[in-house]
Specification:
Blueprint lengths: L6 H12 L5 H4 L5 E8 L7 H19 L2 E8 L12 H8 L4 E5 L8 H8 L4 E5 L9 E4 L2 H15 L5 E6 L4 H14 L5 E5 L4 H14 L5 E6 L20 E4 L5 H7 L4 E4 L2 H16 L15 E4 L3 H12 L2
Parallel strand pairs: 1-2, 1-3, 3-4, 4-5, 6-7, 6-8, 8-9, 9-10
Antiparallel strand pairs: 10-11
Helix pairs in contact: 3-10, 3-11, 6-7
Length: 326
């Protein structure tokens, strides 16, 4: 046998030497280009920016790991109208040119949207992030644990209070998320801790008026703690309405301006839902769902609400800064 290689042999050897080592993406056959639409309502909460941040971080990881390309498109749909059966033009466009997958920030709608049903029936891979536990059972969801958020806020306020006394709880009527948070708060307070529930429309002016009235009527200074089930009161710069050194306050956070109240000491701490982690997890689940590998993520990661005390206000501001860049 000749010891000299033929021209074909040289070419084969050269190609073998130049070929890169197999990538994990090639082994898993996850090569491709994916168009993923992110849907939200007309007036999404500021925290949805954390979702975008998590999606983008996961995108970078997945593209590097599996040598794939992921393109996001953000689409705004009108909030659903009771009794309306018309399909908005934005949704019809998705049905006419289906994306590879959809992420629905259903918290922006305030409740599960009928648009999700339409997308699900069209066979488009879908994952929703919901504000309440009444998410549709037919699809994959990441559901905010608002009950746990209320419990955590109440626990931390009780620790911050130096004396026993009444806790003023501020909420808004007719909102499922508020009802769940309040339920969690009352579970912690039980029958021994006195409290008063203050309810008003969710806007700063109404909240400030109610707070001033409540403080004025509290002549015997029975209120020793304030618990805000949302942070409307801190979305405009105002002078402190109560003595925070005597009666600490805790709020569940949804807006970046609340960091100022935390830094100034008006708040002892805030509770925030893990929006960034939700976005990160959502994209991973979608990629595995597209490739019928969902079974590999059967043990889903739970992301409980997070407590941020005043001494970690700088870290919280840094987190919000990264979100606002999205």
């Amino acid at each position: 046998m000749s010891r000299h290689l033929s021209s074909c042999g040289y070419l084969l050897l050269l190609l073998t030497c130049l070929a890169p080592f197999p990538l994990s993406g090639q082994n898993l056959e996850l090569l491709g280009n994916y168009r993923i639409v992110v849907l939200n309502g007309e007036n999404p909460p500021s925290t949805v920016l954390g979702l975008y941040r998590g999606l983008n971080l996961a995108k970078l990881e997945l593209q590097q790991r599996y040598t794939i390309e992921i393109d996001f498109e953000r689409t705004t749909l009108p909030d659903r109208t009771p009794g309306s059966h018309s399909i908005p033009a934005q949704l019809q466009d998705l049905l006419d040119t289906p994306p590879d997958a959809v992420v629905v920030a259903a918290t922006a709608f305030g409740s599960p949207s009928n648009w999700e049903t339409i997308l699900n029936e069209a066979g488009i891979p879908l994952i929703s992030i919901h504000a309440s536990a009444d998410a549709p059972p037919y699809q994959e969801n990441i559901v905010a644990n608002e009950l746990a958020a209320g419990r955590l806020a109440a626990q931390q306020l009780l620790q911050a209070m130096r004396r026993s006394g009444t806790i003023a709880i501020l909420t808004a009527p007719g909102k499922p998320a508020m009802e769940q948070r309040l339920q969690g708060v009352l579970e912690v307070l039980g029958n021994r801790q006195p409290y008063v529930i203050l309810s008003t429309t969710p806007n700063p002016n109404a909240v400030h008026a109610l707070l001033r009235e409540t403080v004025a009527e509290d002549r015997n200074r029975q209120i020793r703690g304030w618990l805000f089930l949302d942070d409307w009161a801190f979305r405009s710069m105002v002078d402190p309405i109560w003595d925070a050194s005597r009666a600490p306050a805790v709020s569940i956070m949804n807006h970046p301006s609340t960091t100022a109240a935390l830094r100034s000491g008006q708040l002892a701490g805030v509770v925030i839902q893990p929006w960034q982690q939700w976005g990160h997890e959502a994209l991973y689940r979608l990629i595995y769902q597209i490739h019928d590998r969902a079974g590999e993520r059967e043990h889903l990661i739970e992301f409980p609400p997070q407590w941020i005390p005043r001494n970690e206000s700088e870290a919280l501001e840094s987190l919000w800064s990264s979100w606002l860049l999205e």
